[in-house]
């Protein structure tokens, strides 16, 4: 290392948007290369409203890896972040900062520690996967891979705005497993996404270990990956192209429910949703049925929070009104807040 004084710090900050899958990725055929067992489709959320900002720093003065999420230090021992860190370290390359006179070789990375701080501009929401940390670390360590999948498969879909498909690909080396933009954010801009934060606790079963257990033990997952999802992907692409909200809602809700069904079919079973999540599903289903045409689609990732996609602003305002009625703030339910992109929606409902 060029600098022996131990006083230098090198930092990288990156912002990554969040995406929400409407046809879920669940299960890998190759864990190292992060290759999925089915295609998936997601919508990327506007980073102005929902994104994660991460700063990573490296210095010879650091004597251990440390990480803070929204200002709170989290334990790294034996967890997925630690594994992830080592995976990225293994791919690190030489880094040079001429201005600061710093040169870090590939070998140096093995003995250097990093500090990672990550902030979400929304309440830490269990199950809303974000891989800003991985992205910033890869940048800091000059990792050459650019398929966007470092550390987390679903992250590659955040490479683009609008609706994005992650094609599972066929090649063993993963060369054809890529994110493909389907339509940009302007194509279907009347949709309004509301996230009902049911619980901001960290999820108990990480997606990585959950999907591994599903692939190993569920009898249903093969049927889902081979028979159900391929058909849904075709139908979903068509619904998105045509802005066909009824078909979009049917597919989105059905796919979320099937994803949670395969979690339940896993041994031991994985429960990501809780009673409040189930009540939200009940409310939305009832409302959609009573209206005749669907107004809102729901989807849940690896956690209890509901992602609700309303067909337009009017439906979104009505939805918020209903949610506030059924789940009043500070009531006994554990639905603690709503994250909405457009704060003026609250004004619409008075
Ligand atoms: C339920 O991308 O977090 O959100 O690749 O193991 O890091 P790893 O999993 P991750 O899984 C996300 C699963 C999901 C569905 C989805 O986003 O498609």
TrEMBL record:
<keyword id="KW-0456">Lyase</keyword>
<keyword id="KW-0414">Isoprene biosynthesis</keyword>
<comment type="function">
    <text>Performs the first committed step in the biosynthesis of isoprene-containing compounds such as sterols and terpenoids.</text>
</comment>
<protein>
    <recommendedName>
        <fullName>Diphosphomevalonate decarboxylase</fullName>
        <ecNumber>4.1.1.33</ecNumber>
    </recommendedName>
</protein>
<keyword id="KW-0444">Lipid biosynthesis</keyword>
<keyword id="KW-0443">Lipid metabolism</keyword>
<dbReference type="GO" id="GO:0005524">
    <property type="term" value="F:ATP binding"/>
</dbReference>
<comment type="similarity">
    <text>Belongs to the diphosphomevalonate decarboxylase family.</text>
</comment>
<keyword id="KW-0547">Nucleotide-binding</keyword>
<feature type="domain" description="Diphosphomevalonate decarboxylase-like N-terminal">
    <location>
        <begin position="17"/>
        <end position="179"/>
    </location>
</feature>
<keyword id="KW-0756">Sterol biosynthesis</keyword>
<dbReference type="GO" id="GO:0019287">
    <property type="term" value="P:isopentenyl diphosphate biosynthetic process, mevalonate pathway"/>
</dbReference>
<keyword id="KW-0752">Steroid biosynthesis</keyword>
<keyword id="KW-0753">Steroid metabolism</keyword>
<dbReference type="GO" id="GO:0004163">
    <property type="term" value="F:diphosphomevalonate decarboxylase activity"/>
</dbReference>
<keyword id="KW-0067">ATP-binding</keyword>
<keyword id="KW-0576">Peroxisome</keyword>
<dbReference type="GO" id="GO:0005829">
    <property type="term" value="C:cytosol"/>
</dbReference>
<dbReference type="GO" id="GO:0016126">
    <property type="term" value="P:sterol biosynthetic process"/>
</dbReference>
<dbReference type="GO" id="GO:0005777">
    <property type="term" value="C:peroxisome"/>
</dbReference>
<keyword id="KW-1207">Sterol metabolism</keyword>
<feature type="domain" description="Mvd1 C-terminal">
    <location>
        <begin position="193"/>
        <end position="350"/>
    </location>
</feature>
């Amino acid at each position: 290392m060029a600098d022996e004084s131990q006083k230098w710090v090198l930092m990288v900050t990156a912002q990554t948007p969040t995406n929400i899958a409407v046809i879920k990725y669940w299960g890998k055929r190759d864990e190292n290369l992060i290759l999925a067992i089915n295609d998936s489709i997601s919508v990327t959320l506007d980073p102005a409203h929902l994104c994660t900002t991460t700063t990573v720093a490296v210095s010879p003065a650091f004597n251990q890896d440390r990480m803070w999420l929204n200002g709170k230090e989290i334990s790294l021992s034996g967890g997925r972040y630690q594994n992830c860190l080592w995976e990225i370290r293994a791919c690190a390359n030489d880094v040079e900062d001429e201005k600061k006179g710093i040169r870090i070789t590939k070998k140096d990375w093995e003995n250097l520690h990093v500090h990672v701080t990550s902030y979400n501009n929304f309440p830490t929401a269990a199950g809303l996967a974000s891989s800003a940390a991985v992205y910033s670390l890869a940048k800091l360590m000059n990792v050459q891979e650019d398929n966007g999948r470092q550390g987390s498969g679903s992250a590659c879909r955040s490479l683009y705005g609008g609706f994005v498909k992650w094609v599972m690909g066929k090649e063993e080396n993963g060369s054809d497993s890529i994110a493909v933009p389907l339509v940009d954010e302007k194509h279907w801009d009347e949709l309004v996404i509301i996230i009902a934060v049911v619980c901001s606790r960290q999820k108990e079963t990480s997606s990585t270990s959950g999907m591994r257990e599903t692939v190993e033990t569920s009898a249903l997952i093969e049927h889902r990956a081979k028979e159900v999802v391929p058909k849904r992907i075709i139908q979903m692409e068509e619904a998105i192209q045509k802005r066909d909200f009824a078909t979009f809602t049917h597919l989105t809700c059905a796919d979320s429910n099937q994803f949670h069904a395969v979690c339940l079919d896993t041994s031991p079973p994985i429960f990501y949703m809780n009673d409040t999540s189930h009540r939200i599903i009940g409310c939305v289903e009832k409302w959609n049925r009573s209206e005749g045409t669907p107004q809102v689609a729901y989807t849940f990732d690896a956690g209890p929070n509901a992602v609700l996609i309303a067909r337009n602003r009017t439906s979104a305002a009505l939805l918020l009104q209903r949610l506030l009625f059924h789940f009043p703030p500070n009531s006994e339910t554990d639905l603690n807040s709503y994250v909405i992109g457009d704060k003026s929606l609250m004004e619409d409902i008075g």
